[in-house]
Structures
1.
Amino acid sequence: MRQPNDLSAFWLPFTPNRHFKTAPRMLTRADGMYYYDGTGRALLDACAGLWCVNAGHGRKEIAEAIARSARELDYAPNFQFAHPQAFTLAQRIAALAPEGLEHVFFVNSGSEACDAALKVARAYFQKIGQGSRFQLIGREKGYHGVTFAGISTGGIGNNRKPYGPLLPGTDDHLPLPYGASMRFTRGEPEQGADYADSLEALVALHGAETIAAVIVEPMAGSGGVFASPKHYLKRLRALCDRHGILLIFDEVITAFGRLGYGFAAERYKVTPDIITFAKGVSNGAVPMGGIVVSNKIHDAFMGGADHQIELFHGHTYSAHPLACAAALATLDIYRDEDLFARARKLEPVLEEAVHELRSAPFVLDIRNVGLAAAIELESDPAAPGRRGYEVILRAFWDEDLVVRVSGDTIALSPPLIAPEADLSHIAEKVRRILKTLS
Ligand SMILES: Cc1ncc(COP(=O)(O)O)c(C=O)c1O
């Protein structure tokens, strides 16, 4: 791949641009567990891209499906027309979802999926004559993408603070179900289900009749890999039921095997009303996202005259033929290689590997669930985020490793195809990096 001779035009997202451009970390090729830079150096991918390349890089079946689709049907609108693969894919995704969630609405990213879920929740209550329900409750440290609805229900300060008044009706957030006593928990914490009860306080404050939905990630990912405590999601479900509030699981990360199942809803045996997905659905190869919606919600929209549009929402590229082709090929791989089960098998291996870092310098906490883990570092009080950034740099330049950080927390989410030895290699590399930090 030719290297560019001018780096100024591209404004990188979520990146310190000026420093990046002093020594750009270019990725030019990918295969299996590895990225390659322009010199041909292999870098172990500890994060499945951005939590999305669950079946590993360079999958030929996916590439071929995309190429076939590009030749056969480059583009088709899904407003008033459609193409067959969108229906097949919707059916395949719905089959992985809990019973009673049988309808899929496609978008192009996780952010758009969250936006669609929140809009559908509000519109549903309008449809059923409960338009007073408009409040959308998020959670501290929640990440629901970068639209105004996403940052408003999200709970990450830096993503919200620069953007002025946020979406009305999104002021309240549940607390993150986590406390210092839960440090170094393996998997789901035993304690903490009662954090869900804080929804009662919000109901008491506003009245249930004003609240449309609660949106949570079954595992807070971008906020720093926080597993749901045991029984927490069940308790939240029960409270939502008691007050007629919809429960949205943001499964943009947790779906398609990251927690060992098609959807985390299956792991926790909790059925939400809406599930968002993106990332792993197409193995990251073509942007795609969507929501799976309960029959109850879907059916509420299906009234009115024949010519009337039921939901005024959608994108030019909703259910793009190339994305559908990529997703169908991806789902075939997950099924044929039994990759969700493989993630369950790898979970204790990753757990063991990361918890051995407990004695490494600056380690404040280690958390893991499914095939995801976080190593939270003590922040430099004078420069929060500095250690995390140094981890990225040292990983890339010295350890041939691609990792992701959120502030001073290192997040690991390897592809589900990872050989067991790679999980130990990742942890060894992280240990060496931590030893160099100041
Ligand atoms: C839980 C969750 N929701 C939404 C998003 C936003 O997805 P995207 O970056 O595709 O817009 C992310 C991205 O990391 C996510 O982790």
Note: The mean pLDDT is 97.
2.
Amino acid sequence: MSRIGESHPCTMPAPALETLVVDILVLYYSRDGATAAMAQQVCRGIETIAGAQARLRTVPPVSTVCEATDDAIPASGPPYAALADLRECAALVMGSPTRFGNMAAPLKYFLDATSALWLPGDLAGKPAGVFTSTATMHGGQETTLLSMMLPLFHHGMLLVGLPYTEAALTRTRTGGTPYGASHVGFNERSPRLSDEEAELCRALGRRVADLAASLVRH
Ligand SMILES: Cc1cc2nc3c(=O)[nH]c(=O)nc-3n(C[C@H](O)[C@H](O)[C@H](O)COP(=O)(O)O)c2cc1C
């Protein structure tokens, strides 16, 4: 993505603003598939915005007993995220299952390695949103979402939520919060998002992408 207003010393013409496409990073961890299903819906929301495309990335699991290394490319699913993904993307939508009311360690582990981006302020001013999946209705959706925001605030990101102008937020009987999208799994074997949960995932993707695209244009 080239920055608007940057001077171009070479003779190549700058891309027209209307053809500029910004990447929105959808970064998630999922062990049993629910957060992965949410990430797919977030991507669908992003892709409804002209000039925005989703870049889906995950993180490998971590081990408590030793520093484990994994193949750079997982056997299935999206590629593992690299710092370059965060640097290159115009915005971030980040998802994690709840772990005791907090984000999962693999995602936190990845974020803990982002000092090289924090020092020069590479993420400052970029929009971000968060989503989570829990087993139970009151198992810590809000605490997880709010704590996921903390490192993003340190990076200077602009947090985007879900206002009640999104009608599904009033209708939902399961997941969905003003702080970000959520899903309640009720310990079901295969993840099945409710219509409202899926709609709010798409709304979050759409809102983050819309803001990122307009920030790039202005
Ligand atoms: C170690 C651990 C801690 C968990 N803590 C909570 C919790 O605090 N609240 C809750 O509702 N669910 C909790 N869960 C359940 C998961 O958050 C839930 O099943 C989630 O939907 C899984 O997402 P995934 O399918 O993307 O892996 C926990 C699960 C594990 C393994």
Note: The domain at 20-217 is CATH 3.40.50.360 (Rossmann fold).
